[in-house]
Amino acid sequence: MAGGGLHSSVFLVMVSGQIESARFPEFDDLYCKYSFVYGQDWVVTSGWEEGISQTTKKSLDRRQVFVFNFPLDITFKSTSPFGWPQLVISCYGLDAFNHDVVRGYGAVHVPISPGSHTREIPMFVPESSSKFQKFVSWFFGRRPEFVDPKVVAQGEGREVTRVRSQGSVKVTFSVVTRDMKKLGYDTEPASVAIPHLASGNSGITTIRPESQMHGAESHS
């Protein structure tokens, strides 16, 4: 009986996939770190919450991509879609002085709808606020970077951070959900716009695609 009560009060989101590749044409060597950021109602039940890839070299063909094929595998449980998990990726490499420096930060929500998904994550780096600071940072190998990369998944303070676009990372997801409809949540394909519920008396809350939400909002 206790087990049945538990299963009726939570839903599961199982995520697998891989950090497939990255595009940073101006660099030759690269590795990635990843971590998942999620709300207070979410708990990791199995898998890896963070990790670091191997260092790889840029391909010699026209594509000039870094191939990682680094696996992702994690399972969450929650009672609410608020704070839907995000994947945060930060890429690093060596500069001309052999210093390990950040090459880009980026974040993306785990797709809401079950199935296979591919995401191209635009990356960015913080910028110095003046040319003098930029020169000093370059000279001493202390370029601007975030103390905690997870900050890129948050909105607070981002409007005052000066950044520059740089590169992209390709990620593939395979998502399986369980017991969401039992709790009154209906997930639809991310490509479908959801302006309203089909029936106001259905008792089902439709979750918006991640491209329309900020923290997995829901509406009724």
Automatic annotation (TrEMBL):
It is found in: Cytoplasm, Cytoskeleton, Cilium basal body. One of its GO terms (cellular component) is MKS complex. It comes from the Eukaryota. Keywords: Cell projection, Cilium biogenesis/degradation, Cytoplasm, Cytoskeleton. Residues 201-220 are annotated as: Disordered. GO terms for biological process: cilium assembly. Belongs to the B9D family. This is B9 domain-containing protein 1. It comes from Desmophyllum pertusum. The lineage of its organism: Eukaryota, Metazoa, Cnidaria, Anthozoa, Hexacorallia.
